[in-house]
Design goal:
By secondary structure, the chain is α/β, with parallel strands linked by helices. The protein has a single domain, classed as CNF1/YfiH-like putative cysteine hydrolases (4-Layer Sandwich). It has 7 helices and 15 strands. Helix 4 runs parallel beside helix 6. It is globular. The two termini are about 20 Å apart. Bound molecules: zinc ion (ZN).
């Protein structure tokens, strides 16, 4: 954990080795955001300030900003090289770009956050994999889109999986459990627990990704570090940013 800056965040050694600015920010980094719908001006201003402080913390405050408001579905968007700056996307759970002027960001609390990086064309990507996205193969399909759009070799892609709820803590009902293979489920006292991280790692491997980092911290068990929707029933989220 890097505490040397104003905000603390966790990093992937593989991404750091390649000099990719990124961070899974602890809850301290957006403690003061209370989600509002509809949002007030005060909320909007504090959200913009927060987003700027994330970029400052990872030394890319010169970058434009693309914020992905997760839709909890499985749609992927490739922004390409000439993406507009300082926009909020509300319809996607994965975004790609090969611009080196843009930071991609989203917020999460229990779902699986994934960063992607391809060094040859400097493609970066973010994936938000909840149960719907995971069931829709979002991690695998995002790699397939990278291959299709950029003709890259998936073995060169680095994937970094951030803090997420673990397979012992993520209880689901039968209707969700039935969608997943047995190997992703733990049954305990008649309750079903789903291992979303494992399912996403398998999808990345199936798509040909060989370099996978994982920050193995369960959000449900570590609410002093990260927000957990399941544990706290909170509208707050922690940030994941890559530039
Ligand atoms: Zn756990």
């Amino acid at each position: 954990m890097d505490k040397s800056k104003t905000l603390s965040y966790f990093t992937s050694p593989l991404l750091s080795k390649h000099g990719v600015p990124h961070g899974f920010f602890t809850r301290q980094a957006n403690e003061h955001i209370v989600y509002e719908n509809p949002p007030s001006k005060k909320y909007m201003d504090s959200a913009v300030d927060n987003r700027k402080s994330w970029l400052r913390a990872i030394d890319i405050d010169d970058h434009g900003f693309v914020f992905m408001e997760c839709a909890n579905q499985d749609k992927i968007l490739d922004l390409g090289k000439n993406s507009p700056f300082n926009i909020t996307l509300s319809d996607n759970d994965a975004v790609l770009t090969n611009s080196d002027q843009i930071a991609l960001a989203f917020t999460v609390a229990d779902c699986v956050p994934i960063f992607l990086f391809e060094p040859g064309q400097r493609i970066i990507g973010i994936v938000h994999a909840g149960w719907k996205g995971t069931n829709g193969g979002i991690a695998k399909r995002t790699i397939e889109m990278m291959i299709e759009n950029y003709k890259i070799a998936p073995k060169n892609v680095i994937a970094a999986i951030g803090p997420a709820i673990c397979g012992k803590c993520y209880e689901v009902k039968n209707d969700v459990g039935d969608l997943f293979a047995k190997k992703y489920k733990n049954i305990n006292n008649g309750k079903i627990y789903l291992d979303l991280v494992r399912a996403n790692i398998d999808q990345l491997k199936k798509a040909g990704v060989k370099q996978i980092d994982r920050i193995d911290i369960c959000t449900f068990e570590n609410t002093h570090l990260f927000y957990s929707y399941r544990k706290e029933n909170t509208p707050k989220r922690f940030a994941a940013v890559i530039g």
